Amino acid sequence: MIKTIVWGENVHEQKNKVVADIYPDGMHNHIAAALNNDPEISATSATLQDPEHGLTEERLADTDVLIWWGHAAHGDVSDEIVERVCERVWSGMGMIFLHSAHFAKPFKRLMGAPCNLTWREAGERERLWVTSRNHPITAGIPDSFELENEEMYGEPFGVPEPLETVFISWFQGGEVFRSGLTYKRGAGNIFYFRPGHETYPTYHNETVQRVIANGVKWAYNPQPRIADPNAAPNVPVDEAPEKIEERGPRLHEAGEEGYR
Questions:
Q1: If both were cysteines, with which of 50, 152, 228, 240 could 120 make a disulfide (CB 3.0 to 4.6 Å apart)?
Q2: Does residue 248 belong to any structural domain of this protein?
Q3: pLDDT given for residue 235 in this prediction
Q4: Is the pTM of this model over 0.90?
Q5: What is the CATH number of the domain that holds 24?
Q6: Residues in the chain with pLDDT < 70?
Q7: At what angle do helices 27-35 and 206-219 cross, to 10 degrees?
Q8: The dihedral of CA 232, 237, 240, 242: what is its sign?
Q9: What residues make up the domain containing 118?
């Protein structure tokens, strides 16, 4: 079982009746419930309001993939938790960012970029095109699929060049957007998936649910994780793979403060 956490702000659901009617149990719980229909995934949820945002050291250590949805309260996320999440990604935890999580602190931290874009909220039609038919994330997905109402995101998208572009969107107003991008950061796999504006029933769509489940399986890293992604151990001369003759004075000595 791939242990997955669906993290949500849980802000709009509390303040906006339209959102609450679409997702009465919250988007995070709705997405988790859909994922739990897959026998390979065990999903739970966490929110901004939980102690430590529901992402304690112990819980993250037992998590294979973390899914993140945020929009109105990016600034309310603790920098300590952001660093904790990024450390886990560098160590091998998979990460999926949904919709407006392009501006989430962990995404910007992992991308090292502005992550900005153009947008319009008009409930217009979106068509997503598969750009990599053989990619695991697109397994069982038609060459294209349509969402009748969505928020437009348009290029340019201020992110680093991705490892792969999996989906491209066209919107009724004419704009296009790279809607499915993959990255590798440290030992962790990252998938950004664009659809999911809170006032539309996007996460009720079975194709969207399938993409997210496929994303979880792709992001999952079954290999042992890196214990300390920031470690930079010294390799002594006598432990080098090949015999070498040491030449010249050393700048540092083992045990010295700052020695590396």
A1: 152
A2: no
A3: 85
A4: yes
A5: 3.40.50.880
A6: 224, 252-260
A7: 70
A8: positive
A9: 2-219
